[in-house]
Amino acid sequence: MSTAGDTTAVTNLIMKYAELVDAGDFAGVGALFADGVFVGSGTTIRGREGVEKIGRVRCPAIR
Q1: How far apart are CA 29 and CA 2, in angstroms?
Q2: Whether 29 contacts 20, CB under 8 Å
Q3: Looking at the whole model, is its pTM more than 0.90?
Q4: Are 45 and 38 spatial neighbours (Cβ–Cβ below 8 Å)?
């Protein structure tokens, strides 16, 4: 069960992520998901450095 606060937190996270990616701030994206683990496309990415690196690799035209 989610609360209005949970919904707001997730909405804010998505908005911040989009802002950081649009700005090419992959260090910021890494900081945003520093405690995260991403699993997809056969890859597991952990922590700040991994998230920052995958952003730079997958979105090289955004700087």
Answers
A1: 25
A2: yes
A3: no
A4: yes
Contact 22, 59 (CB under 8 A): no
What phi-psi label fits residue 42: left (phi over 0), alpha (psi between -120 and 50 degrees) or beta?
Answer: left
Q: How far apart are CA 48 and CA 25, in angstroms?
A: 13
Q: How far apart are CA 7 and CA 30, in angstroms?
A: 22
For residue 36, the model assigns a pLDDT of: 85
